[in-house]
């Protein structure tokens, strides 16, 4: 359900970029060569559009600098206008910014996936959705309830697992999260599962106890993938959250 704000933010960003680019690039008509001067206004509009969509200021700054480096000094091809060339360069850089290349999950079997994130980010529902997706791809998924703090967290995951016909493990007595993870691995092995998804606890903000617990769980289960679940409405704070988790766990995906 958190996809709503993310989609809205993305749509706003691209609509805003389109409008601002259209305005800025009209000023480049008839120019025979792209220079720092005639690019300045266009790139200022691009930066403003990125910041308006709550893109982190460092990301926006680096993006504009890369575009400027590619644009300045380029000869304008006879078959296209300067504006068209700039749009092509910006398009290519946006593709790089949003992610390109190989992004599939590890091919390890059994595939062990650790789901991490802040409280309320949607880890539990995302764990079940990922299990459902992998089941469609031919896996025999197993979900493990490693959130021992949130009321009804175990019940929620159990209901979702039953609904999607996924394997499920929980321990409603133990407070030892790494031990629960280890037991889940054994249970999954007995159930001949080839994919184990560990749903972990979150906090309202990054703190020492959260990081230490998930690090110990990581060391116990040795996951092939560590996926950060972030709310689409988190905005540029996602950069700080991702960095904190990445420093502790070496994230493999978002």
What is the helical fraction, as a range of percent? Answer: 40-55%
Portion of residues in beta strands equals 5-15%
Structural class: alpha/beta
Sequence of secondary-structure elements? HHHHEHEHEHEHEH
Unreliable residue stretches? 1-7
Query: How far is the N terminus from the C terminus?
Result: 16 Å
Spatial strand order of the main sheet: 3-2-4-1-5
DSSP strand tally: 5
Overall average pLDDT = 84
Number of helices, where a helix is a run of at least 4 consecutive DSSP H or I residues: 9
Report Rg: 23 Å
Largest sheet: 5 strands, parallel
Query: What coarse outline follows from CA principal-axis ratios?
Result: elongated
Task: Write the SSE topology.
Elements: H1 3-25, H2 36-52, H3 57-71, H4 82-98, E1 111-116, H5 123-136, E2 141-146, H6 153-164, E3 167-169, H7 177-190, E4 195-200, H8 208-221, E5 225-228, H9 237-249
Parallel strand pairs: 1-4, 1-5, 2-3, 2-4
Helix pairs in contact: 1-2, 2-3, 3-4, 5-6, 7-8
Question: Your description of this structure?
Answer:
Helix content is 55%, strand content 10%. The chain has helices at residues 3-25, 36-52, 57-71, 82-98, 123-136, 153-164, 177-190, 208-221, 237-249; strands spanning 111-116, 141-146, 167-169, 195-200, 225-228. Helix 6 links the parallel strand 2 and strand 3. The chain is α/β, with parallel strands linked by helices.
């Amino acid at each position: 359900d958190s996809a709503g704000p993310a989609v809205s933010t993305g749509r706003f960003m691209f609509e805003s970029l389109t409008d601002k680019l259209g305005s800025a690039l009209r000023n480049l008509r008839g120019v025979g060569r792209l220079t720092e001067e005639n690019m300045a206004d266009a790139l200022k509009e691009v930066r403003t559009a990125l910041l308006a969509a709550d893109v982190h200021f460092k990301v926006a700054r680096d993006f504009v600098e890369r575009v400027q480096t590619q644009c300045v000094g380029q000869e304008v091809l006879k078959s296209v206008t300067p504006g068209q060339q700039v749009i092509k360069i910006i398009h290519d850089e946006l593709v790089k910014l949003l992610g390109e290349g190989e992004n599939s999950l590890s091919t390890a079997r059994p595939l062990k996936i650790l789901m991490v994130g802040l409280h309320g980010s949607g880890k539990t529902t995302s764990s079940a959705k990922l299990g459902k997706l992998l089941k469609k791809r031919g896996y025999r998924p197993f979900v493990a309830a490693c959130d021992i703090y949130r009321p009804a967290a175990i019940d929620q995951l159990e209901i979702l697992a039953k609904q999607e016909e996924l394997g499920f493990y929980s321990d409603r007595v133990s407070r030892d999260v790494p031990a629960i993870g280890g037991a889940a691995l054994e249970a999954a092995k007995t159930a001949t599962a080839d994919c184990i998804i560990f749903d972990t606890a979150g906090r309202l903000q990054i703190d020492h106890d959260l990081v230490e617990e998930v690090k110990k769980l990581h060391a116990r289960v040795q996951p092939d993938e560590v996926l950060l679940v972030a709310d689409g409405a988190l905005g540029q704070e996602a950069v700080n959250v991702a960095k904190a988790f990445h420093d502790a766990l070496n994230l493999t995906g978002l």
